[in-house]
Prior knowledge:
Helix content is about 40%, strand content about 20%. The protein has helices at about 15-25, 50-70, 105-115, 130-135, 135-145, 160-170, 200-220, 220-230, 240-250, 265-270; strands at about 5, 40-45, 75-80, 90, 95-100, 100-105, 120, 150-155, 175-180, 185, 255-265, 280-289. Strands 2, 3, 4, 7, 8, 9, 10, 11 and 12 form a nine-stranded mixed sheet that branches. Strand 5 (about 95-100) and strand 6 form a beta hairpin. Helix 3 (about 105-115) packs across helix 6 (about 160-170), helix 6 (about 160-170) runs parallel beside helix 9 (about 240-250) and helix 7 (about 200-220) packs antiparallel against helix 8. The chain is of the alpha/beta class.
Amino acid sequence: MTIREPAVAGIFYAGSPRQCREHLQQLVPEKVDMADLPETIRGGIAPHAGWAYSGRVCGLVYAAIAARTTPRTVVLFGASHRRLGSNAAVFPKGTWETPLGQVAVDADLAEKVTAGAGDIAVDPDVHQGEHSIEVQVPFVQYLWPEAKILPILVEPSRGAPGIGEAVARAAGAEVVYVGSTDLTHYGPSYGFAPEGGGQRGLAWAKDVNDRRIVELMRSMKAELIVDEVIENRNACGPGAVAATIAACRAAGATRGVLLAHVNSDEVARSAGAPGGADAVGYAGIVFGQ
Length: 289
């Protein structure tokens, strides 16, 4: 059996079972404000930075989904931080391991997906070392111990919405879709500071540059996502975002709800650390009807 071993446990999130579970208890709220949530939630967008920075946003997304449904399988569309050689790459069978144990890959769904979409390659090797999906998996294990996962890395290509639609056609009911992306990487460390340094630049990154992509996500305009990011550098996982929106749309979702939008500088300051010259944005969104 193929086992995908953790690559960033102890780095991006806690490496021991006890600490991992305790941290999840802090990050996932027990109660969610249901007033603005769609009656049916088909999926969402969650960040993939270290949990110390983006974990509370992730927790909100997963808690909101859990408030509405108990999925049989969670399709995890991940940001690819290296070239895949195809529009998307699925991890087809076996298990993923985290400090919380092993979770099974939905091999039946993987087979249906790859049989029905020529742009999705079977390539478990490209998932090794990639963190964008891995940091999501413990949230799935914590909230839905019986659920399976289907990890799919997606290139930032204009074919990404078609990937999501193909997956949704194969998946049917009792499946939710979570796409992983961070937003604008701003500051000298990232070589991107068109509005200068300091708080003025960081505010622009969040309030202007992030907001452009956030509004496209909220309005579920999957076909505009990749071009927006190519032009404005306001997300690192546009392919995953576009695929997720298209899959949720094909499953009946008609609107997105923004749950949270912060950046790493704000998170650090709230924890008592001094502000820095760099920041990365994080947004949590759910899609439903």
